[in-house]
Design goal:
Blueprint lengths: L4 E4 L6 E2 L1 H14 L7 H7 L4 H7 L14 H8 L4 E2 L3 H10 L3 E9 H10 L8 E5 L7 H12 L6 E5 L2 H10 L2 E5 L6 H5 L4 E3 L4 H5 L4
Parallel strand pairs: 1-4, 1-6, 4-5, 6-7, 7-8
Antiparallel strand pairs: 2-3
Helix pairs in contact: 1-4, 7-8
C-alpha cells in the first residue's frame, strides 16, 4: 500500500460550494456597483492568498480592511444549502474500507470546519479535522506542517487531495504527494500548470489508489 493516509481539502474538493462562493462575492460586488463574476471568470482568478483574489476583483486594501464585510456573513447563512460532491461519501467509505485512514486539512476556521463536517454526518470517516485559527483563509501551510509533526506519519505515506493551486503548494511544503481534482474552484488549465496529476472526478481516486 503506497499511501496509508489521505489528507483531503474541504471546500471545492469534498464540498460542492463553488456556486455559493460565486453568489456570495457577487452580492458584495453588486452592492458596490463592481463587475460581477461568472463561473468561468471565478475559476480563472480565484487564488491564495485569498486577499490577492479580492485584489484581482478590484478591491483596494489600502483603503479598507481585509476580510471584507458581507462575504462570510452570506456564506455562513447558506452553508447548509451546500451538498457534498457526487460520489464523495462513497469514495471516502471505500478508502476507509481499504485500510487507509483519512483527515481533512482546510483553509477554513477550525470551529467552522468541524461544524460543516458534522452537518454532513461524515465526521466518523476522519482521524483529524485540521482548520486554521482565523477567517482570512491564511495559514493552511502552517496548519499542515504542524499536524504532520504530531501525526506520527511519514510524508511518503501521505497523499494530499485538493482542487486548487494552493493545495499543490501545501503538499510541497509538507513534503507529501499531491493529487488535484478538477471539480472545484480553479480552472483545468491552471491546475495542469502545477505539474500535478489532475483527475476529472472523485471516483478516479479509487483507480489511482488501486481500490476495486
Amino acid at each position: 500500500m503506497k499511501y496509508k493516509h489521505i489528507v483531503w481539502d474541504w471546500n471545492g474538493t469534498l464540498l460542492d460550494d463553488r456556486w455559493l462562493c460565486i453568489a456570495a462575492i457577487n452580492i458584495v460586488l453588486g452592492s458596490r456597483g463592481m463587475p460581477l463574476v461568472s463561473n468561468k471568470n471565478y475559476r480563472d482568478v480565484f487564488c491564495f492568498p485569498v486577499i490577492e483574489y479580492y485584489e484581482k476583483l478590484g478591491f483596494d486594501f489600502t483603503k479598507e480592511h481585509f476580510p471584507i464585510p458581507g462575504f462570510l456573513e452570506y456564506y455562513k447563512s447558506r452553508f447548509k444549502d451546500c451538498t457534498l460532491h457526487k460520489d464523495a461519501e462513497f469514495v471516502l467509505k471505500r478508502i476507509n474500507e481499504s485500510g487507509r485512514t483519512q483527515s481533512i486539512l482546510s483553509a477554513g476556521k477550525q470551529s467552522s470546519l468541524v461544524r460543516w463536517v458534522n452537518h454532513h454526518n461524515i465526521d466518523h470517516l476522519f482521524n483529524h479535522l485540521i482548520g486554521i485559527k482565523n477567517e482570512k483563509a491564511d495559514g493552511k501551510i502552517e496548519a499542515g506542517i504542524n499536524w504532520l509533526k504530531i501525526s506520527r506519519l511519514e510524508p511518503e505515506n501521505i497523499l494530499l487531495v485538493g482542487d486548487t493551486i494552493h493545495d499543490s503548494e501545501v503538499s510541497q511544503a509538507m513534503g507529501v504527494k499531491c493529487l488535484l481534482i478538477d471539480i472545484g474552484h480553479v480552472s483545468t488549465k491552471r491546475l495542469k500548470r502545477t505539474g500535478e496529476r489532475v483527475l476529472p472526478t472523485l471516483r478516479g481516486i479509487l483507480e489511482y489508489l488501486k481500490i476495486e
